[in-house]
Amino acid sequence: IEKYLEALQQQLPWLSRYGVAIESSNNFPHSAGIASSASSFGALALCLAETHLDLRGVPRKEFLPFASHLARLGSGSAARSIYGGFNLWGATPGIADSSDLMAIPIIDIHPVFADLHDLIVVVSDQKKSVSSSRGHALMNQHPYAAERYSLARERAASLPRILKSGDMDSFCRITISEGLGLHGLMLTSDPPVNLLEPLSVEIIRLAERFRKETGLPLTYTLDAGPNVHLIYPGEMADAMNGFIENYLMPFTSQVRLIHDKAGAGSLRMSI
Questions:
Q1: What is the Cα–Cα distance from 120 to 255, expressed in whole angstroms?
Q2: Measured between alpha carbons, how far is 259 from 246 in angstroms, rounded to an integer?
Q3: Is the distance from CB of 173 to CB of 217 less than 8 angstroms?
Q4: Which are the contacts of 162, defined by CB distance < 8 A and separation ≥ 6?
Q5: Which of 56, 71, 105 is where one domain is finished?
Q6: CATH number of the domain that 230 lies in?
Q7: 158 and 231 in a common domain
Q8: How far is CA 158 from CA 61, 130, 171, 270, in A?
Q9: Are residues 100 and 189 in the same domain?
Q10: pTM score, two decimals?
């Protein structure tokens, strides 16, 4: 955090003249591959952006884009934690206003995607064996990195159309492939890194079995860690209760379940 604040002094020169007191808490594990850095740097960037607005009179319409920009300098994922719903970070051909400097919200969303839920199966809440920074560094000389980046850009460009049309099949395929592709890169890096646990693989197998047996659009993905995100439309809530009872029940003593859903965006809790 100190390094982050020092790095921002060129953009926020008033930081050098003020002391900063931070009191924070989170409701999910830190450094376990559930984007805790995104929430923390997103919250901190919002506080800094609001202070900057008050001190320098930044136009209100620039507040969220500026906060997203500041958040990105702390954590790339944090840039997407400012707005609610779907966000895109990264300059993407064919998508107006997309940028490497900040995230933008994707507004035109089909109703089927407006109420997505995320059942996070926390296989381990221990600190990852490999930090995100070290994981990123492993990609610098990775033989498959260029192809992976190209595919990611191609998929990002297709997502606004998919989200607008309600193409759940394509959404599920991309979500699954992106999560597994990330871990595939880690497993084939030099040295290889395995962030998955045997139980992670078992949860994925259960999700695939459920999809095959019910035909319901349960999809899943993984961040850089062993924990599995099971993503589904809100209208599937009853079916997912059945999934927990009939599929996950033998493992509930070994995992922690976090029920989450697409949020409305950042919210100022106090003054």
A1: 10
A2: 17
A3: no
A4: 170, 171, 174
A5: 105
A6: 3.30.70.890
A7: yes
A8: 28, 31, 10, 39
A9: no
A10: 0.90
The answer on 93 and 115 residing in a single domain is no
Please measure the distance between the N-terminal and C-terminal CA atoms of the chain and give it in whole angstroms.
22
DSSP string, 115-175: TEEEEEEES--SPPSS-HHHHHHHTTT-TTHHHHHHHHHHHHHHHHHHHHHT-HHHHHHHH
Nearest Cα neighbor of 218 from 230, 209, 206 is 230
The whole-angstrom separation of Cα 172 and Cα 218 is 8
Q: Give me the chain's average pLDDT, please.
A: 91
Q: What pLDDT score was predicted for residue 5?
A: 94
Q: Is 97 helix (H, G, I), strand (E, B) or coil?
A: coil
- Residues 49-60: pLDDT tens digits? 999 998 887 788
Extended strands (E) in 44-115 = 87-89, 103-105
With both helix axes pointing from N to C terminus, report the angle between 145-165 and 168-187 in degrees, rounded to the nearest 10: 160
- Separation of alpha carbons 270 and 240, rounded Å: 35
Higher pLDDT, 61 or 187: 187
Partnered with residue 119 across adjacent β-strands are 230, 259
Indicate if 48 and 155 belong to the same structural domain.
no
Least confident of 25-39, 175-189, 208-222: 25-39
Q: Domain of 62? A: 2-105
Is 270 domain-assigned? no
Partners of 87 in beta bridges: 105
Question: Do 160 and 34 have their domain in common?
Answer: no
Asked whether the beta carbons of 99 and 156 are under 8 A apart, the reply is no
User: What's the average model confidence in pLDDT over 145-155?
Assistant: 92
**Total number of domains constituting the chain:** 2
pLDDT band of residue 32 (cuts 50, 70, 90) is low
